[in-house]
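Need a sequence for this fold. Nothing fancy.
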């Protein structure tokens, strides 16, 4: 899953958190898949702010007009 890969890139080991404690991955996938391309869902996993869209997963940087994509 792209979210896990992005979190690992940020230095968060996959055994240090449970993704379902932060977001329902199945529901998120359904929302993104069924929505138009303009939707984004933002949430934070262990202090790492993420933005998920049909285009992929981005880490939100302090200046929200820019993000670091994977």
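Here you go.
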């Amino acid at each position: 899953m792209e979210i896990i890969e992005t979190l690992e890139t940020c230095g968060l080991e996959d055994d240090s958190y449970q993704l379902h404690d932060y977001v329902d991955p199945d529901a998120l996938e359904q929302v993104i898949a069924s929505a138009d391309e303009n939707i984004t869902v933002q949430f934070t996993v262990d202090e790492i702010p993420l933005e998920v869209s049909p285009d992929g997963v981005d880490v939100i940087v302090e200046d929200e007009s820019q993000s670091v994509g994977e």
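For context: The chain is about 25% helix and 25% strand.
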